[in-house]
């Protein structure tokens, strides 16, 4: 115990001496200041001694962190801290699947993300047996043979679900004979790339069809129908319809692009659903009469206000009611209902647009809001549809923290319900 007490005393004395030495210039400046005041002012020697003692005490108690560290001291502290971290702790801190292996391609350690992604892996297992894909075998051979210090390949895991990874491998330090595999999940990026490619292909197809039709009629008008007034009038009308179709498609593409570029913000204004739906019904009155459809109103009493952007919600209800008038015209009527809804954690207002036409088969309902998806391609084009209307509806409702539900039976019409939060 005496030896321990003596060691503690020596350590304390060494710490105090170190602090005094590190603060020597500050201490010297303080003593000079006190002596200067003593020389020009009427101070007693006791006051001077007391001031110097206070300076010494303050310097001794000064925290070690305040003193300026040399680069060598900082490097030593950093090395000491890193030596306390094991490879297991470092691997656990990586969010991506990470596997450490040795020169025989045997797993030494795998983090929790690797276990979750691949399962069935454990220290002592052979990587070559676990990952049999040719690209993984080539990556392991390249690293273990020393042909490359680091390498990257694309790898797809098929089970339990298909996931795409960008796999990087490199050696760990120098002379450790350990190597690391890191799997960066690229599945979402690949899905977005496929969606973008599909969108461009679909948009190109939708534009190419009317362009080909217009080009063909132009050639006909220049040749065989040059002097045929009846054919010329018919072909010009078809060309006019096709250019209108392209214009509608471009307008919908621009609307969709603007919606996707807008940040997700809660709209700051309120919309009167009663007035908005009245305006939509009035604007589509000519279309309804042209298709022989009667639009009926069933609005709840009292205030029907919801937070939102009037123009965007007008576009939602216009698209839904226009579809009901076009594709449900055989039913002869469309019913527009506004009702208070108490379903869910918060109260809201439901707007339902129901037609009594042929309805929609159940297998089509989950995909009906996808871009360019059509239940009946020929009927959609006959009705001048672009295949983007319901996709625009979905994007607008997402911005409004709202949702769309669809109920339909073949032969009994379809009901599209917009669920809007009341606050």
Automatic annotation (TrEMBL):
Q: Which reaction does it catalyse?
A: ATP + protein L-histidine = ADP + protein N-phospho-L-histidine
* UniProt keyword terms in alphabetical order: Kinase, Membrane, Phosphoprotein, Transferase, Transmembrane, Transmembrane helix, Two-component regulatory system
Question: In this entry, which stretches build a coiled coil?
Answer: none
Root EC class: transferase
* Xref: Gene3D superfamilies: 1.10.287.130, Histidine kinase-like ATPase, C-terminal domain (3.30.565.10)
Q: Where is the signal peptide?
A: none
Transmembrane stretches, by residue range?
21-40, 46-67
Q: From what superkingdom does this record's organism come?
A: Bacteria
PANTHER family reported for this sequence? PHOSPHATE REGULON SENSOR PROTEIN PHOR
What protein is this chain from? histidine kinase
Organism, per UniProt?
Mesorhizobium ventifaucium
């Amino acid at each position: 115990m005496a030896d321990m007490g003596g060691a503690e005393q020596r350590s304390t004395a060494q710490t105090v001496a170190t602090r005094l030495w590190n603060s020597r210039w500050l201490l010297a400046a303080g003593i000079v200041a006190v002596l200067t005041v003593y020389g020009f002012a009427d101070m007693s020697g006791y006051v001077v001694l007391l001031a110097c003692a206070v300076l010494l005490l303050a310097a001794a108690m000064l925290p070690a962190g305040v003193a300026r560290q040399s680069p060598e001291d900082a490097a030593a502290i950093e090395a000491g801290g890193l030596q306390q971290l094991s490879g297991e702790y470092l691997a656990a801190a990586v969010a991506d699947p990470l596997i450490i292996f040795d020169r025989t391609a045997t797993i030494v350690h795998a983090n929790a993300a690797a276990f979750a992604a691949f399962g069935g892996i454990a220290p002592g297992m052979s990587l070559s047996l676990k990952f049999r894909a040719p690209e993984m075998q080539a990556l392991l051979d390249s690293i273990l043979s020393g042909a490359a210090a680091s390498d990257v390949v694309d790898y797809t895991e098929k089970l339990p679900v298909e996931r795409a990874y960008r796999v990087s491998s490199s050696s760990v330090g120098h002379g450790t004979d350990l190597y690391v595999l890191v799997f960066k999940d690229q599945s979402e990026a690949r899905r977005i790339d496929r969606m973008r490619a599909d969108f461009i292909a679909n948009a190109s197809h939708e534009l190419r069809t009317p362009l080909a039709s217009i080009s063909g009629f132009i050639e006909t008008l220049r040749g065989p129908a040059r002097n045929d007034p009846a054919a010329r009038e018919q072909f010009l009308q078809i060309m006019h319809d096709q250019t209108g179709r392209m214009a509608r498609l471009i307008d919908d593409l621009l609307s969709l692009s603007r919606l996707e570029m807008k940040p997700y913000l809660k709209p700051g204004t309120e919309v009167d659903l009663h007035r908005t739906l009245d305006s939509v019904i009035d604007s589509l009155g000519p279309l309804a009469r042209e298709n022989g459809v009667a639009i009926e109103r069933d609005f709840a009493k009292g205030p029907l206000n919801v937070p939102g952007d009037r123009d965007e919600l007008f576009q939602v209800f216009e698209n839904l009611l226009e579809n009901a008038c076009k594709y449900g015209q055989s039913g002869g009527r469309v019913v527009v209902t506004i009702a208070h809804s108490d379903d869910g954690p918060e109260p809201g207002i439901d707007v339902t647009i129901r037609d009594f036409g042929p309805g929609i088969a159940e297998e089509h309902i989950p995909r009906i809001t996808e871009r360019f998806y059509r239940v009946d391609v020929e009927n959609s084009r006959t009705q001048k549809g672009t295949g983007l209307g319901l996709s625009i509806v979905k994007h607008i409702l997402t911005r409004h923290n709202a949702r769309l539900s669809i109920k339909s039976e073949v032969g009994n019409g379809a009901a599209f319900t917009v669920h809007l939060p009341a606050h």
